[in-house]
Amino acid sequence: MKFIFFIFLFLIISSTTKANIYWLYEFYNISPNFNIFSLNDDEYQQCLKEKLSEKDYKKAIEYKSSISQEMEGAADQCVEKLLVSQSNTKLQLCLQNELSNQSYNNLITKQFSKSPGKNDFKVFHKCLSELKTNTVVASNEQYNESNSCPEGYKLVNNSCQSDASKQKQKSDDLNKVVENKLNIKKNKYNLNDPALNKCFKKMLGEKRYQEVIFSSSEKPNDEENTSILGCQQNPDYAWQESIALGYNTMDNFYDIFDGNKMENCVSNPKPVFTHEITDFSQIKQLKRWGLTPQGYLKGHSYIFLKNKGHSDNRVIIDKPVPVYAPIDSYLIMQTRYRLQGLKEVQWRLMFQVGCEIVYRFDHLDTPSDRILKHLGNIPIDENQVSAPNISVKPPLEITAGEIIAYTKGTPQAGSWDFGVVDISKNNELPKRLKEYENKPTGRAYKYAACPYDYYPDKIKKKYLKKMKRKKCNPKEIKNK
Predict the structure, then answer these.
(1) How does residue 323 score in pLDDT terms, banded at 50, 70 and 90?
(2) N or C, which end of the chain is more exposed by having fewer CB within 10 Å?
(3) Strands, DSSP E only, in 325-414?
(4) What structural domains does the chain harbor?
C-alpha cells in the first residue's frame, strides 16, 4: 500500500534528535505495523503534543500518511522519556520482569548508559505493545471532546480513524502533491523497493543517502555512482553473505573497521608490535592466513596449542593460555557467541592501531576483568557464523602487553585466531580464489596481512618456524 511506502521511506532517513536511539526505526524492524504514536499514556501523549503541531499530531496518531522527521524525532524523544521516567507502573513492571537486572539498570535506571541489544529492543516492543493503543486525547478547544480523537477523526474500534466526509478530499489532494514530487525519484532510484533503499543507505551513509537519493539535492561522485549501480543490479544478493557471516558491510564492500573506526586517531601506518601475544612455549603449530577450510576464505592466522591428546572429539588442555595485546591500541568491536553445535561460549575482539590497522583475536574463552567491566552485560548470540561485530562505545584503550583474555582455543582443535587487516595493503585476489571476488571475505583479502610481519625480525622468525615452510602469506604474496 502507498502509505506503507511513505512510512518506510521516512523511517530510513537519518534525523536530528536528542534521543539516544532511533526508536521508530528499531520498532519498525520488529513490527512494521506497530503504531508508536498511539501508546495510552497521558504523559507520553502530552510530550507528543508539546513537540508537534496540531496537524502533525493528528497525522501521527492516525499513522496512515507520511511520517516527517519532526514526527520521528518527537516519537524517539517521547518514547525514551516514557521508558526512563518510570512514571508508568505497568510498563516498569513489564520491563523489570523481561529484562535482566543489569540490563534494566544500564538501560532504564542509568538512562541508556549502555546501548540496547536486539533482544532488549524486543522487550521494549513487547512491553510498550501491552499499553492499550487507543489514544486518549485531552479535552480542549483543539480536539473533538465527543470521541476523544482530533477534529476530523472518529473513534472506531478503540483507534482514531479518518472521518471520510471531512478528510477524504484533503487526503487525496495531499497524496497527489507528494506523489508528483516523488515521481522523478521513484523512476530514477525505485524508492518503492525497501531492499534497494537499505542498500543505498548502507553504501552511501545516512547523510549522503538523504542528499543524493532522497532529496536529489546533490549529485553522486564516481565512487557513489558505482555503489548505486551495484545496488540497482541486485540489492538483495548484495547482503546475503555479509549478513550470514556477521559483517556490517555489504558483500561488495569491506571496511577494515567494520563501521566503528575511531576518527580521532593518530596515524601510525607502520606500527611495530612490541609484545608477544601469548606464552610461546604452549604453541604447538601455526597456520598461515588465506586458507579455505569448509569453503570459507580466512583472513587470519591460526594458533594451535599443545595438548595431552583427545577424548570424545575434544582436545585435552589443562589450563588456558593468556592472550596479550601486541601494541598500544583500542578495543573497538566485540562478539560473544555460542559455538555451533556446542554449549561453550567464546569471544571475538577487534582492536584499532593508529588510523590504518586493525588486529583481532577470535575463539577467546574469557576476556580480562577490565574488558568485561567495560563491556557490561553482553548477550550471547546463538548463531556462531552470523554473530555480528558489535561496536564498543566508547572504545577501550589497551596498553601493549596487557592481558586481554584467556583461552584454550576451540574445544575440537585447541586453536584460536590472530589476524591483521591493514588499509595500506593492496593484495590481488588470485584466480584460484575468484569465487570469493564479490563477497566480504574476498574484499577483506585485499587488506589482510601476516600479523607476525609487524614484529621485529627476531620475534617474527621465531613464530614463522612454527609454520609450514615458514610461510605466513598465501603463495601469491611474497613474504617480507
Answers:
(1) very high
(2) N
(3) 329-338, 345-353, 357-364, 366-367, 390-398, 403-407
(4) 2-189 (no CATH), 195-235 (no CATH), 280-470 (2.70.70)
